Amino acid sequence: MPEGQEKRPVIVSSDMAREVRIPPGQVETKKWPVLHYGDVPQVNLAEWDFRIVGEVEAQWKCNWETFRGLPWVDVKCDIHCVTRWSRLNNMFSGPSTRTVLAQAKVKPTATHVLVHCEQGFTTNLPLEEFLGEDCLFGIEHDGKALEPDHGWPVRLVVPRLYFWKSAKWVRGIELMSADVAGFWEQNGYHMHGDPWTEERHSWEA
Q: Element (H or E) spanning 127, and its range?
């Protein structure tokens, strides 16, 4: 936690107010299963940077200390994996997506975001959903730094979509004027990923 940020906004995801919090086809777990493709990246924070590119007036780049020093929020949320598990009552902490994107002036032509991660992984989101009130770049989970398996040093957290959209090991975002499929979307996952309507695969669109 950056110094001076002991008191910060606490945001409760709207999905936590649902009468039934487990989406169709899901099973609750108390554990946090580890799922990813390939090896866990070896990250050197001294060389780490974050970039905002694409449909912006000027590109923005920062190092780890600057990124980590942005104002944080705490987000209470449930998470739902496309592989049919749900984990309730999580707390993620880090800069909100709104705070990060405010570092660059976005062009009015921007409608979507492509999230860029270590090892060339990407995922796509509508800009409106990327900027949801409960969306952030998580650095801590339940008060502790993320484990490398779960995306350390930083992962995107978009609670109201399937959790593959909450990409691990994020290194930047690209603003786009059209929707472009990310890694998993190119390999059969749904372009949107709403767990409440079971948008799991592209052939179910």
A: helix 127-130
The per-residue pLDDT for range 162-184, each reduced to its tens digit, is 999 999 999 999 999 999 999 99
d(CA 148, CA 145): 9
Q: Which CATH number fits domain 50-204: 3.40.1710.10, 3.40.640.10, 3.90.420.10, 1.10.3720.10?
A: 3.90.420.10
User: pTM of this prediction?
Assistant: 0.93
Q: How far apart are CA 193 and CA 132, in angstroms?
A: 15
If DSSP codes are grouped into helix, strand and coil, which group holds residue 123? strand
Structure tokens at 89: 């009552």
Smallest CA-to-CA distance from 89 within 146, 138, 22 is with 22
